[in-house]
Amino acid sequence: MNPNPRNAHHACPRAVFASVVVPIVLAAAAPTAGAGTTSYRVDFLGAGWTGTGINAQGDVCGNMSPDGTALLAGVSRAGQPFELLPLPKGMQTSRAHDINDAGVIVGAVCPNQYVITQPTAAVWRRVGDSYEVQVLGGLPGDPYSAAYAVNNVGDIIGGSGYWGWNLSTGVLFTPEGPVALPEGVPGSDVNDQRVVLSGRRLLNLDTGEFTDTPLPAGNWNGFVGAALNNGNDFCGYIIGYSGCSTFPIRYRQGFGWEFLGGCATTTSATAINDRGDTLSYYYTTASGVTLVPEGYFMLGSLIDASQGEWYVQWGGANGINNARQIVAAARQGANGPIGAILMTPLNAGAPGDLDGDGDVDQADLGILLAAFGRCSGDEGFNPAADIDGDGCVGQGDLGILLANFGA
Q1: Can you name the residues that pair with 51 across neighbouring β-strands?
Q2: Is the peptide bond before 119 cis (omega within 30 degrees of 0)?
Q3: Strands, sheet with 267-272, edge to edge from the N-terminal-most edge strand
Q4: Which residue among 136, 214, 345, 380 is buried most deeply as judged by most CB within 10 Å?
Q5: For residue range 367-394, what is the model confidence (pLDDT) as tens digits?
């Protein structure tokens, strides 16, 4: 996700809506972590910190509150403790939302302590071992703005508006300044194919076209999107009408809607990687992950016994990358401080372990062959099968997998 927008200021054509009929799948009963299940080591990234995003290298962006009200943004690199990001002149507080594979971080800054309610969009870019910050601003006439997501091809999306806690107009931040997204739709995430997630609609920035995904069968009051992967799978929560009104849910292309758990007053899926692995939480209760194909696990159950006693908190599980590294919030022992942790698989397999079960076998070969010959942007392309990272699934990837077969 590195800011070098291409055609970012072009006028988008009239939106086109496409509807498809989708199946619905209920998540299976939660399995117990054990043999064949990935176990995790833990790096404690700092007391009081909350991680908000993770990139392919395991670098994490996040925030901490020095006084219980104000926020300051920071970055953790390769499992090391968080470092504060620089503030622009005249700004006192900051907030980080997302980080890309080049280490670019987007969020907001503020001249007082109220960065949550009075934000101004900002981006931090790596320069050597340090960071430089740039204020992005908002649309003309809007006092507040924030940047929410950044992809690996240069696009930064966010919101602009009159109320800082409800930025009503979605924007694409370009070198010439922020530009309203088509129809002003809000966007929560953007992938490397330049597709923006806006609720249950997908907006293609290259064509300006929308794809609308119908809600699953039932009496629903809408869907709130949280995260999007490079296969256009997405996650968030679906809204019902009862007191137990929200359900964590994801949509996977070719599979349809999948409920990731039961209802709660407050619950949501929060992050999804290119495998389809999805984080979710229940308010005051639990944080978990639904792995593909293994199923649902409480995050705490995945931490290896060698790491000591950790209590994963219900909030703060906000990022999972393709290596299945997870950023969450936890307390070490009964009395330790709560802070951000980086969970890294201990028994991840060799290159070619596409299903993340710790070995390279027929299941991994099947995943690769199903995507063989397809490139990024093609229907059926699976980024996890692009082992050599050249944008296509081909002979190079097959050679790597076969060289590690049985490992």
Answers
A1: 62
A2: no
A3: 267-272, 278-282, 286-291, 295-298
A4: 136
A5: 899 889 988 767 667 767 888 777 788 9
Q: Poorest-confidence range of 121-125, 162-166, 264-268, 343-347?
A: 343-347
Q: How far is CA 230 from CA 10, 15, 52, 290, in A?
A: 23, 21, 19, 18
Q: Give CA–CA dist 355/348, Å, rounded.
A: 10
Q: Output the pTM of the full model.
A: 0.81
Compute the mean pLDDT over every residue in the chain, rounded to the nearest whole number: 88
